[in-house]
Amino acid sequence: MENKPKVTIHDIAEKLNITASTVSRALNNNPRISELTRKAVLKTAKQLNYQPNNIAAALRHGKSHIIGIIVPTADRAFFSSVVRGIEDMANNLNYKVIICQSYDNYEKEIQTIDALLSARVDGIIASIGKNTENFDHFKRIQAKGIPLVLFDRTTDALEVSQVMIDDYLGAYKVVEHLIQQGCRRIAHFTSPKKVSIFKERLRGYADALRDYDIPYDEELVVKSNLQLVDGRESMEQLLKLKVRPDAVFSASDYAAMGAMQVLKENKFRIPQEVALAGFSNDPFTSFTDPALTTVDQFSMTMGKKTAEIFFEQLKSGNKTAVPQKVVLKPELIIRESSLKSGT
Amino acid sequence: MENKPKVTIHDIAEKLNITASTVSRALNNNPRISELTRKAVLKTAKQLNYQPNNIAAALRHGKSHIIGIIVPTADRAFFSSVVRGIEDMANNLNYKVIICQSYDNYEKEIQTIDALLSARVDGIIASIGKNTENFDHFKRIQAKGIPLVLFDRTTDALEVSQVMIDDYLGAYKVVEHLIQQGCRRIAHFTSPKKVSIFKERLRGYADALRDYDIPYDEELVVKSNLQLVDGRESMEQLLKLKVRPDAVFSASDYAAMGAMQVLKENKFRIPQEVALAGFSNDPFTSFTDPALTTVDQFSMTMGKKTAEIFFEQLKSGNKTAVPQKVVLKPELIIRESSLKSGT
Predict the structure, then answer these.
(1) Are A18 and A24 in contact, with CB atoms under 8 Å apart?
(2) DSSP, res B266
(3) Residue of B nearest to A91 (CA)
(4) Are the C-beta atoms of A197 and A152 separated by less than 8 Å?
């Protein structure tokens, strides 16, 4: 293992025959330094393998140029795509991004916030875990005086800017589409959790039924954790009803996939006998047979918008007067699993 | 926003009528402190909303109890599952995990290492980006004297412990299976990159052909970035050959999915006319129609094994004499896309 003496800004200064403070300013993108000088400094810094002592700098200036992102799981296409949108903007502004996963676990969510604060992030962007009902740990971020912005899974219990899609509208559009396809007995897979996205989707479902004079039937609304296996169980439960549903609108693509498997195993024709729709437009939804109708959430846009608000807040020294709430419009993606035309 | 005076270990000590150093020891899990005292301290710490000044502690002890993980993308099921395996063990040992994505971008990979070192991680676990051919940035981690362990996408250019699966064996098994299904003109999708996993899969492909006396045909080996769109293009290219292949073994599930789409669009029967196999056992491979034959990489096990080696190294003060190389055996998952029996 190497163990060379550490390269400092003085070494860079000496090599370029300029002062150390000019080097420091150049490295900190001070506008008073010419582009030419800045480039020369960066080049020399790289040649010498200079590594800024960011931890010391962070303690001095209170800036690490690192943003923390908390997501339930980074492997859902939706979350990873939002993260990508945030990273794109962050990288352009010379910020780095570190990610923590809460796995929808309340205790772990608290720990991830500890970890990010320990890592001295300049601010945190988060999507709240499904099981979180107390938000004190998020208040700790605010108490530190650093920006906190929420996206997708948000809460009004915190005084904080948030970016979300109109889950109500997305759900309403799906159910309206299913009704227009002739479905009358439309089941809904939802979550028992307090997270607003599922409540909004349920509200959209209920309102669409009401607007088309279809009675809301409690036995068609199945609550679960919305994973693939839950979708399977929910579908099996629905198939035991005296009158089976002629459509299922699942608040998650994975649960919709579980339902599709059970329907195919039981030789039901999709969409002719049971139409299916999910929510999120996960990439796999276009790989299934039939391809799954779903709702696109413009995740990259959500990421960019979230980052925009975050950096505004950061620039203003976290003094933004009124938290913003940005609601993006989702898009209904109609595919074969619900399109009965021609049948 | 709150701005209360910061709670210290002295406040906890006062409340419990014990010394501050006992509180400190209890918080640091010192075995000399009784379980009863430790629990009382943790409870009071929580009540008072005590937040340890980990950054100061890190500077004092050189320990942040945070591990950094670098993956190309966290949204691939394989990587997220390895990360989960690592996190499981880390959490049990009271370590927290932060993740950075390199997006297979060399410059970004360097920056993620900067970010993690700035965040004062106690060590780094990484899977190398597809485009990385120079490893100096990884040497910087080693120069810091903190553990570095690589998994899956590793390199022998670094003196470092690594955990991987036997990509050669996985590929060999796939091709042997395709030959046993009667396929004789087996194409292979591979990457032009230096990452060893793809070289090993290509070697397994070539050796299986050789062992079964099937000539290696350069025009059947298609190099690309192995994303879905690349798989589509590669398949289109293969369909233009004078004699089309009767099977495709793709080094990636996504590229195999692209090939499946093109074959279905062109009304080829899978597997009767063209058999298909991927690599990684991404969850979507069981959702496709036909379901995709693939290779399972035991990603959770890989994560656990990687974490095990990492923590051994950490415990020994990063003084492990000889880097370990652990090679896990993969499993062939045979599904409809390659199973011709009965036709």
Answers:
(1) no
(2) T
(3) B108
(4) yes
Instruction: State the Rg of chain A over Cα.
Output: 25
Is the peptide bond between A290 and the residue preceding it cis, with omega within 30 degrees of 0?
yes
CB of B222 closer than 8 Å to CB of B234: yes
Contact B80 A77 (CB under 8 A): no
Residue that the structure tokens 């299986």 belong to:
B208
In tens digits, what is the pLDDT along chain A, a chain of 343 residues? 333 456 778 888 888 888 888 888 888 777 778 888 888 888 888 888 777 654 444 444 557 899 999 999 888 888 988 999 999 999 889 899 999 999 989 999 999 999 999 888 999 999 999 888 899 999 999 888 899 999 998 888 899 999 999 999 999 999 999 999 999 999 999 998 777 889 999 999 999 999 999 999 999 999 999 999 999 999 999 999 999 999 999 999 999 999 999 999 999 999 999 999 999 999 899 999 999 999 999 999 999 999 999 999 988 877 655 889 999 999 999 999 999 875 4
CA distances from A19 to A15, A16, A52, A105 (A): 10, 9, 17, 51
**pLDDT tens digits for B267-312?**
999 999 999 999 999 989 999 999 999 999 999 999 999 999 999 9
Show the 3-state SS of chain A. CCCCCCCCHHHHHHHHCCCHHHHHHHHCCCCCCCHHHHHHHHHHHHHCCCCCCHHHHHHHHCCCCEEEEEECCCCCHHHHHHHHHHHHHHHHCCCEEEEEECCCCHHHHHHHHHHHHHCCCCEEEECCCCCCCCCHHHHHHHHCCCCEEEECCCCCCCCCEEEEECHHHHHHHHHHHHHHCCCCCEEEEECCCCCHHHHHHHHHHHHHHHHCCCCCCHHHEEECCCCHHHHHHHHHHHHCCCCCCCEEEECCHHHHHHHHHHHHHCCCCCCCCCEEECCECCHHHHCECCCCEEEECCHHHHHHHHHHHHHHHHHCCCCCCCCCEEEECCEEECCCCCCCCCC
Name the packing angle between helices A136-143 and A106-118 (round to 10°). Answer: 10
Distance between CA atoms of residues A95 and A86, nearest Å: 10
CA Rg, chain B, in Å? 25
The answer to whether residue A59 neighbours chain B at the CB level (below 8 Å) is yes
CB atoms closer than 10 angstroms to residue A85: 22
Q: Do B98 and A87 touch (CB under 8 A)?
A: no
Q: Which residues in chain B touch residue A1, judged by CB atoms under 8 angstroms apart?
A: 142-143, 145, 159
CB B186 within 8 A of CB B220: yes
Burial class (CB in 10 A: 0-12, 13-18, 19+), B283: middle
Percent of chain B whose predicted confidence (pLDDT) is above 90: 64
- Which B-chain residues 93-122 have CB contacts (< 8 A) with chain A? 96-101, 103, 108, 111-112, 114-121
